[in-house]
Amino acid sequence: MKKIIAFLFCSLLIATTCFANSYDNNPNYRYVYATKGIKAYLDLKSVNVHKYEPPIYEIAGKFVYVSDYDGNVSRTNSIIAKYNYSTKDIWIWNGYWEIADKREKTSIDIYNRSSAKAMFRAAYNMDFE
């Protein structure tokens, strides 16, 4: 019985370490979301406040996207977000200011708002919503 329990424990340990990557326990990165085999992390050292004029804020940050399968970086992306704290609106810069819908109607809205909220939290140590 002890051998079976030891085998199951070792199997579980191996299975859980397969999904870990070097960003999971790195204090310089904050996990934001996961989708379709990719985890998104905010590089905390990259967070830069561009505008502080309450209730309007503008923050930039770099995101790293890591594969769940092999732990390698699949891509990086820099994001600039503008916030209106009074109305809880968030805009993302895509060559023009595009609103990230509060109702999160599309997956892009969900990812953009999640990313923007993570940057706000990193910059001010408080939640946007």
Domains, number: 1
- Please give the oligomerization state of what you see: single chain
Global geometry: globular
What share of the residues does DSSP label as strand, in percent? 35-45%
Radius of gyration: 18 Å
Mean pLDDT: 87
Query: Which class do the helix and strand fractions yield?
Result: alpha+beta
Number of strands: 6
List the strand order in the largest sheet.
1-2-3-4-5-6
The DSSP helix count reads 2
CA distance, first residue to last residue: 51 Å
- What is the N-to-C order of secondary-structure elements (H for helix, E for strand)? HEEEEEEH
Key attributes of the depicted protein:
26% helix, alpha+beta, globular, 129 residues
How would you portray this structure in words?
It contains 2 helices and 6 strands. The chain has 129 residues and is of the alpha+beta class. It has one domain. A 6-stranded antiparallel sheet has the order 1-2-3-4-5-6, with helices on one face. It starts with a helix and ends in a 5-residue tail after the last helix.
Can you lay out the helices and strands and say which pair or pack?
Blueprint: H1 2-17, E1 29-35, E2 38-53, E3 56-67, E4 73-84, E5 89-93, E6 97-99, H2 107-124
Antiparallel strand pairs: 1-2, 2-3, 3-4, 4-5, 5-6
Brief summary of the model shown:
The chain is of the alpha+beta class and 129 residues long.
